[in-house]
Specification:
heterodimer; A: alpha/beta; Peroxisomal Thiolase, Chain A, domain 1; 11 strands; about 20% strand; B: mainly beta; OB fold (Dihydrolipoamide Acetyltransferase, E2P); five-stranded antiparallel β-sheet; three-stranded antiparallel β-sheet; 1 helix
Chain lengths: ~375, ~140
């Protein structure tokens, strides 16, 4: 029996996103977002009977939520440590928990104090980075930007993709952040601003890179039959999955470095949902770097491999464009919540709660995750 | 007064990888070759992905390589590399069919292109650690 449509996202919550949460812990931020998501679902904390932790968020564990929320009978706890693919991986994990009847309402909390530890040091502590930590950090490749940049460079050399095309993604995403009301970056930028921003890891410039930020975001995944009486429109998860690339521990040894793990899951998830890329009205696409958005658009099937640069030109990813992408401002301009803010935004869009960035009558959309050294996750959601 | 430079990241060498790092110290780039089916693999790991044999020999790479991709590091994500920026990090196809990520050592800035010929070299970081480097192949 298919898992399609058996789980719904019933609650969403997020905190203010800031550069510095001024002394609030990652756990406090997770709890604030969780309480909002629980209330949004019309539930009370004791209704939660499952917890999936999408990323190692500080040192918090499911037990902290049992203690703080006073959850009387937690029936399932799990973690989905796929880096930035973890939030959407947690959706599938939670959907499996509710579809199997083990849980009714599963909490997925993310909270980060991104500036408290530098990214280079953070990834070196993650077991998924053990291989590159041993063989690539000693020669000078220590941060995700440096691991990912050769993928972008090869794409440019093979297909003629340009830095100005990457800039289109940064500019459009900033326009969306300005409409959001809870975004860290609110000053308009131009393609020329992008081209003038300093080089970080060639070809990636500063404005190709996501933010470090503090905040929390959480969602509730409920069994579809438990969501019938919810106050808000029911948003069903109709297609989902994980895709792990070849050579998942190091990009260097991957046969085709212009293809991400999401290329494997996309056909499966679209088939599960019974829809095609052309049916998608809004897409929240994990954007740790502009190039990662471009490559996912190809791997998802929105355009053939190599044509992502042309696909994103001319504001195509903007509201009113051919495919509105990252309508909240993404990791590039809203905040880096490991993609849980993308899940929150997709649900807002499908409920019609996205304010000035609302895609008219959005009923079908998708959200992706990208993590570590190319893991991909995808969830397709539909409003009933 | 300049602050003391923090140490560079060092490999956490395991039993699976020790021959690779020992080989580099002798200025030899060693790759695992499956004793049973002959498949070469890199980076070092316990099992042959073709035939699932644990048995392996270590064979020396010839040193010939060509450019698969590259990045130029302009930002010091680790303070130990601050004085070396900008650094060209090349993803290189070795003649043996596996890849190497290593810094490019050149006298002057160069414009790289896919397929450009390279030669593997060695850089003694200190007496107990040598890392691979790449140089443009003079005959390339």
């Amino acid at each position: 029996m298919s898992i399609s449509g058996r789980a719904a996202v019933t609650g969403i919550g997020d905190t203010d996103y800031t550069r510095d949460a001024s002394g609030r812990s990652a756990l406090m931020l997770q709890l604030e977002a969780s309480l909002k998501a629980i209330a949004d679902a019309g539930l009370r904390p004791h209704d939660i009977d499952g917890i999936v932790m999408p990323i190692p968020s500080g040192a918090s564990v499911a037990e902290d939520f049992v203690t703080n929320l006073s959850i009387p009978d937690l029936r399932y706890s799990a973690a989905t440590p796929l880096g930035g693919a973890g939030s959407v991986a947690a959706l599938q994990c939670a959907a499996m928990a509710v579809a199997s009847g083990i849980c009714r309402h599963v909490l997925l909390p993310v909270g980060r104090t991104g500036r408290t530890q530098r990214i280079g040091a953070r990834v070196q502590a993650m077991p998924q980075f053990r291989t590159v930590g041993e063989f690539e950090a000693p020669v000078g490749a220590v941060a995700p930007a440096q691991y990912y940049a050769p993928m972008a460079r090869r794409h440019m050399e093979l297909f003629g993709t340009t830095s100005r095309q990457l800039a289109e993604i940064a500019v459009t995403t900033r326009q969306h952040a300005i409409l959001n009301g809870n975004a860290r970056m609110t000053k308009p930028i131009t393609i020329e601003d992008h081209q003038a921003s300093r080089m970080i890891a060639d070809p990636l410039r500063l404005l190709d890179c996501s933010l470090e930020s503090d905040g929390g975001a959480a969602v509730i995944v409920s069994a579809a039959e438990c969501a019938r009486d919810a106050a808000k429109p029911r948003v069903l998860i109709t297609g989902m999955g994980e895709g792990h690339p070849d050579s998942p521990s190091t990009i260097t040894q991957r046969a085709d470095i212009t293809r991400l793990g999401i290329a494997k899951v996309a056909p499966r998830a679209f088939a599960m949902a019974g829809v095609a890329p052309g049916d998608i009205q809004v897409a929240e696409i994990y954007d740790c770097f502009t190039y990662i958005v471009l490559c996912q658009l190809e791997d998802l099937g929105f355009c053939p491999k190599g044509e992502g640069g042309r696909f994103v030109e001319g504001g195509a990813l903007g509201l009113g464009g051919r495919l509105p992408v990252n309508t909240h401002g993404g990791l590039l301009s809203q905040a880096h919540m490991a993609g849980m803010n993308h899940v929150v935004e997709l649900v807002r869009q499908l409920r019609g709660e996205a304010g000035q960035a609302q895609v008219p009558d959005a009923r079908l959309g998708l959200v992706t995750g990208y993590g570590d050294l190319g893991d991909g996750t995808l969830a397709i959601m539909a409003r009933e | 007064m300049s602050q003391a430079m923090p140490p560079k990241p060092r490999p956490e060498i395991t039993e699976d990888s020790r021959p690779y790092w020992d080989g580099l110290r002798q200025h030899r780039l060693l790759l695992q070759c499956c004793t049973d089916c002959g498949r070469l693999r890199h980076y070092p790991r316990p099992l042959c992905d073709a035939c699932h044999s644990f048995a392996c020999d270590w064979v020396e790479a010839c040193g010939a390589a060509h450019v698969h991709s590259w990045t130029v590091a302009h930002h010091a994500f680790h303070p130990a590399f601050r004085n070396e920026l900008p650094t060209v990090l090349v993803t290189a196809d070795l003649a043996e069919g596996v890849r190497l990520l290593a810094p490019l050592q050149t006298e002057a800035p160069v414009t790289l292109q896919l397929g450009q010929r390279l030669q593997v070299g060695y850089w003694d970081v200190d007496p107990s650690l040598t890392v691979p480097v790449l140089r443009l192949d003079e005959n390339g």
